[in-house]
């Protein structure tokens, strides 16, 4: 049961990371396009009559967007579409999203403008999430905002900002897991349904990582956790990176932290 809940938690965590990853990709490409556009805007072109004129940046931006529009002979790949989204995000408006032939990418484009606004708010305004068009994105956005705010200020109150029960429960669970570590008080684990998992998390982050050679592996819950802990202790630090790859419990986190410390 604990392993099943861990898998659900990891899946939700991966979904949030995927959202962050997509936002990061779009923003990086958008910044690159912006500075490239700025560079060429600062230059002048010489006409046949040898007159210097300012480059028409607005037309240039529109031409760049048109170049990336889906055509029968053009690149119709996911990467080219993502570049186009980034270009529109940098130089265009949300109305330009209608230039995609694909309805799904029109939504993705519009959602990117919402994510941009969310990022500019430093992930503080959860109401922005409701303007997303993709239902999974709305859910992932709720996770993103709630966990972002909780990482800055560890409270239970932030959990109530989401209207999704699954987000609330995961947020509350995360609070008790983190509070046990922050306040060095394992009794917080009594507040969650998977007490043993929380206790392992506490012991690993407050005891094992800081003094793994003398840590009592038998104090961990679960035979697999105990076994991996003993393997960790009996492996030289130089070989930990390879050994970590075979771990599947929370000891894995400790293994990598120790290996790269």
Quick rundown:
By secondary structure, the protein is an all-alpha fold.
Helix coverage percent? 55-70%
Strand order of the largest sheet: 1-2
Q: What class would the helix/strand composition place it in?
A: mainly alpha
Query: How far do the termini sit from each other?
Result: 32 Å
Overview of the structural elements:
The two termini are 32 Å apart. Among the domains are: 16-120, no CATH class; 194-261, no CATH class. The longest helix is centred in the N-terminal third of the chain and has 40 residues, at 2-41. The protein has a two-stranded antiparallel sheet. Helix 1 (2-41) packs across helix 3. It is mostly helical and 261 residues long. The protein has ten helices and two strands, in the order H-E-E-H-H-H-H-H-H-H-H-H. The chain is elongated and about 60 Å long.
Layout of helices and strands, plus pairs?
Blueprint (H helix, E strand, L loop, with lengths): L1 H40 L2 E3 L5 E3 L2 H11 L10 H14 L11 H18 L14 H18 L12 H18 L12 H14 L14 H11 L6 H5 L6 H9 L2
Antiparallel strand pairs: 1-2
Tag the structure with descriptive keywords:
single chain; 261 residues; mainly alpha; 2 strands; 61% helix
